[in-house]
C-alpha cells in the first residue's frame, strides 16, 4: 500500500492542472494542508528530447513530498524511458500517467483521455511504464469516467490498470466530451472504487469540507483530489480538514486576509525562473489573479484592472485601492442605516 493511504489516512490531493499547479502554487497548497502533490503533466517525448522547457515542469521541492511527476503519451516503452530519466534527475515519490486530459492538443497526439477509447493501447502504455520503473517507485494513473456518455468505462479501465501493476487510480467523474461542464458523476467513481483492490481517489466538484465529507462517507474512495476549487481558494484544504475533524465549517476568510497570500504567490513566482522577469511573470499570473479575486466585492472592475497588471507593486496599489473602496462602501452603509432604539 502507498504510505499516504496507510493507517486509515484519507489524503487530500492537489489535482495536476497545466499552467496552474507549478512549483510555487504547490508550495502554497502544501502549506494550506494538501497531502499529496502531482506536477503539471509533462510530455514524455519532451523529456526524451531533453527539452529544457519540458524539464522545468518536473521541478518540485522536498517540502512538497509526497509528490509525483505526471507523464502523458501513448508509447509505454518511450514513456518508461522518460520516467527513468525523471527518476535519475530527482527521485519523485511516484510516477503518474495522464489518461484523463481532455485538451485537444494532447488528445490529437493519442495522449490523455484518448486512450480511454483504446483499452489495449492503454494497457500496453501502463505495462511499459510499470516494467521500466515499477521496481523503483510506484506508478499511478489518472482517468476520466469515459470518452463520452455512451462509453463510460471507468470500472473496466480501473480493472485493466490494476492488472498491469498500477498502484492507485484517480478518477475524474466527467467524460472527456463533458470537459469541465456539467456535474461529476460520483456514482461512476464509487463503482470504480468498489471494483478494484487498489486505492481509488475521487475527483470532481469538491468545493467545500461538507461535500468532501459526504463523498468520503457515501463512496468507497480512499482519498479525494481537489482541482479548480483550489485555484480560487487554496484555503480549501485547511477548511476541509477542519470540517473532517470537527464537523464545523470555518467562516469564509475575509478579503483583507486573502490579499497577503496573493501577494506572496506573486513574489514567489517572480523569484522563480519559471516565467522570466517580473513583467512576464505578472502577465502569466493574470489568469491566476482573476481566479483568486472571483467573488470579491466590486470584482468586475477589479478584474479589468488585474488584466493589465505588470508588477507586484502595481498589484499592491490595486489591492489597497480595492480595500479602501470596500471599507468606504461599508462606512456609507453604516452611516445611512437606521439606528435602533
Q: Topology, please?
A:
Layout: E1 12-14, H1 23-31, E2 36-38, E3 42-43, H2 44-48, H3 52-55, E4 67-72, H4 76-89, E5 94-99, H5 104-107, H6 119-133, E6 139-146, H7 154-163, E7 169-175, H8 186-195, E8 200-203, H9 209-218, E9 223-226, H10 228-232, H11 236-246, H12 255-271, H13 278-292, H14 299-306, H15 312-336
Helix pairs in contact: 4-6, 7-8, 9-11, 12-13, 12-15
How would you sum up this structure, described in words?
It is a single chain. With 341 residues, the protein is of the alpha/beta class. The chain has 15 helices and nine strands. The protein has helices spanning 23-31, 44-48, 52-55, 76-89, 104-107, 119-133, 154-163, 186-195, 209-218, 228-232, 236-246, 255-271, 278-292, 299-306, 312-336; strands spanning 12-14, 36-38, 42-43, 67-72, 94-99, 139-146, 169-175, 200-203, 223-226. It has an eight-stranded parallel barrel, surrounded by six helices. Helix 9 packs across helix 11 (236-246). Mean pLDDT is 90; it is low at 328-336.
Search tags:
48% helix, alpha/beta, globular, 13% strand, 9 strands, 341 residues, single chain
Coarse shape: globular
What is the number of helices? 15
How far apart are the termini? Answer: 65 Å
Helical residue percent? Answer: 40-55%
Please provide a brief summary of the model:
The chain is of the alpha/beta class.
Amino acid at each position: 500500500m502507498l504510505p499516504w493511504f496507510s493507517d486509515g489516512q484519507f489524503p487530500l490531493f492537489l489535482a495536476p492542472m497545466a499552467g496552474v499547479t507549478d512549483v510555487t502554487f504547490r508550495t502554497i497548497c502544501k502549506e494550506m494542508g494538501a497531502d499529496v502533490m502531482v506536477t503539471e503533466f509533462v510530455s514524455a517525448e519532451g523529456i526524451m528530447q531533453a527539452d529544457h522547457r519540458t524539464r522545468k515542469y518536473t521541478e518540485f521541492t522536498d517540502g512538497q513530498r509526497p509528490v509525483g511527476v505526471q507523464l502523458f503519451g501513448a508509447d509505454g516503452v518511450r514513456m518508461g524511458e522518460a520516467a527513468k530519466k525523471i527518476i535519475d534527475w530527482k527521485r519523485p515519490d511516484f510516477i503518474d500517467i495522464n489518461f484523463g486530459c481532455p485538451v485537444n492538443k494532447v488528445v490529437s497526439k493519442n495522449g490523455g483521455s484518448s486512450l480511454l477509447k483504446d483499452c489495449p493501447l492503454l494497457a500496453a502504455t501502463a505495462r511499459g511504464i510499470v516494467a521500466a520503473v515499477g521496481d523503483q517507485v510506484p506508478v499511478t494513473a489518472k482517468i476520466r469516467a469515459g470518452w463520452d456518455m455512451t462509453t463510460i468505462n471507468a470500472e473496466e479501465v480501473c480493472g485493466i490498470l490494476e492488472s498491469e501493476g498500477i498502484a492507485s487510480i484517480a478518477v475524474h467523474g466527467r467524460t472527456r466530451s463533458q470537459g469541465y461542464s456539467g456535474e461529476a458523476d460520483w456514482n461512476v467513481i464509487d463503482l470504480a472504487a468498489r471494483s478494484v483492490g487498489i486505492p481509488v481517489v475521487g475527483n470532481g466538484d469538491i468545493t467545500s469540507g461538507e461535500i468532501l465529507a459526504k463523498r468520503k462517507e457515501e463512496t468507497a474512495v480512499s482519498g479525494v483530489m481537489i482541482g479548480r476549487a483550489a485555484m480560487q481558494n487554496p484555503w480549501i484544504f485547511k477548511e476541509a480538514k477542519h470540517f473532517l475533524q470537527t464537523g464545523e465549517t470555518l467562516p469564509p476568510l475575509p478579503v483583507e486576509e486573502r490579499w497577503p497570500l496573493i501577494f506572496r504567490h506573486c513574489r514567489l513566482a517572480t523569484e522563480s525562473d519559471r516565467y522570466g522577469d517580473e513583467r512576464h511573470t505578472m502577465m502569466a499570473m493574470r489568469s491566476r489573479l482573476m481566479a483568486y479575486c472571483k467573488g470579491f466585492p466590486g470584482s468586475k472592475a477589479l478584474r479589468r484592472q488585474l488584466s493589465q497588471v505588470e508588477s507586484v507593486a502595481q498589484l499592491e496599489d490595486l489591492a489597497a485601492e480595492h480595500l479602501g473602496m470596500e471599507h468606504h462602501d461599508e462606512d456609507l452603509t453604516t452611516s445611512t442605516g437606521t439606528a435602533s432604539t
